[in-house]
Structures are given as C-alpha cells and as structure tokens.
From TrEMBL:
Transmembrane segments: none annotated. One of its GO terms (biological process) is phosphorelay signal transduction system. This is Response regulator receiver domain-containing protein. It comes from the Archaea.
Amino acid sequence: MREERHGSDPAEILLVEDNPGDVRLTQEAFEEGKIRNELHVVKDGVAALDFLHQRGEYADAPRPDIVLLDLNLPRKNGDEVLAAIRDDDDLHSLPVVVLTSSDAQEDVVRSYELQVNAYLTKPVDPAAFIETVQSFQEFWLSVVRFPPDDDAEG
C-alpha cells in the first residue's frame, strides 16, 4: 500500500453528486482502493460551495485535497460551481475533476475552458465505473503532487 498523503493524513475528497447510485459506487470504489481517504458528499452545487467556504452546516468541514464534480446538479450546476471555484482567490488552485455521465463534446470543451484539471465520463457498467474511480484514485492521490494548503501567498 502506497500512501504519500501529508504523512499519515487521509486524502480529503469532496464528491459533488446528486445520484445516490453513483455516490454508492464511488464510495465502494474508494473503500476498495489502496489510499486512505475521507470522502465527503454533497448533493448540489450550492451545498458544494457552502462546504468549500465552510458555511452553515459545513462550518467545520475540512478543505478538500480534490473535488470530484458532476455537471448535472440541482440548484447550481457543475459549470457554475467550477466557475465560482476558479474565480475565488482562496480556492482557484484547488484541483477539480469532472466526473459526469455526459460525453458531449461541448461539455468537455466548456469544462476545460473553465480550467478543470481533468474530465472523466462515468461508465454505465457498475464494474467499469468502480474501475474508473479507482484509476482516478491511484493517479490523483498517489502520483500527483499538490501545492500546500497555504499556497495563497505564492
């Protein structure tokens, strides 16, 4: 087991997903994975921004190491959430990976225009879905290096 996350701290992951089945599959994939993590789940874009800004019921929420963001969300869609993150001085460097059922080229292009770090399309097959999430986990949480939390100065 390879763990290179801030010493022994688990990776903090924010999953923004309104589909209960996809939440369950994602949780299962992370539980089966090799990297310690804390998976936090919110069901819409407004709650995602409240979590990231530690507002309301999320006042004690940790700052995630990475955000997994669905595009098709109630109240505030994924594009709006991504734009808000990139426009915020405290959040703009936070890694965001879109994980969505949309494989529409215009969604891919728009996400990259909004500076998403990666775009993943959810497979329909549950086993393939879990494999996709585990591939994400292996790459983003063990290979990629993140800036320190206090990188706002530099």
